[in-house]
Amino acid sequence: MDKPRYEFRTVNRILGEQPRLGPFPADQIVPWSAIALIMYMVVKGFMQQSWFATGIAIAWGWATWWTVSSNKAFFGKFVGTPRLSRGYKPFVSLVNPPRFEPKKKRKPKKRTLINSSNYRR
After folding, report:
1. Which residues are bridge partners to 21 per DSSP?
2. Where are the transmembrane segments (predicted)?
3. Is residue 47 part of a domain?
4. Does a structural domain hold residue 85?
5. With contact defined as beta carbons under 8 Å apart, do 99 and 93 qualify?
6. How many distinct structural domains can be found in the chain?
7. Does some domain include residue 33?
8. pLDDT at 61 over 90
9. Cα–Cα separations (whole angstroms), residue 39 to 23, 65, 66, 67, 96
């Protein structure tokens, strides 16, 4: 008899992948649309340049945005760090908590009164 084979079979290769729209990452679609609209208004509308210059400006904006925002390497620098402050309670370990033993009563020290007769003159 054949031994049963326990191999995993890939059902959906897309699972676990970054969402894409064709070759472009899905998280870049909205920023690229905004860049294209702004570049069109500035280069074609305001500066009255050709479509070629507008296309070059849009491609430059897209490439810059993709470089700056890829893999969160650039924008990850701007994540806020937690604010550290000093506490007023001492550290108590949760793993090894201190054992509180009842304190023994201390015997009071005997006090002696000092008389002037005890001193030599």
Report:
1. 24
2. 21-43, 49-68
3. yes
4. no
5. no
6. 1
7. yes
8. yes
9. 22, 13, 16, 18, 63
The pTM for the full model equals 0.49
- Alpha-helix residue ranges (DSSP H) falling in the chain: 29-39, 51-69
Sequence-ordered list of residues with C-beta below 8 angstroms from that of 54, at least 6 positions apart, any chain: 39, 40, 43, 44
Tokens of 50: 């050709």
- CB-CB contact of 66 with 29 (8 Å): no
- Supply the Cα-derived Rg of the chain in whole angstroms: 38
Does residue 98 belong to any structural domain of this protein?
no
- pLDDT(112) > 70: no
- Asked whether 35 and 29 are in contact (CB, 8 A), the reply is no
Q: What is the dihedral of CA 69, 73, 79, 84, to 10 degrees?
A: -170
CB 94 within 8 A of CB 100: no
Domain interval for residue 47: 26-66
Sign of CA dihedral 45, 51, 53, 55: positive
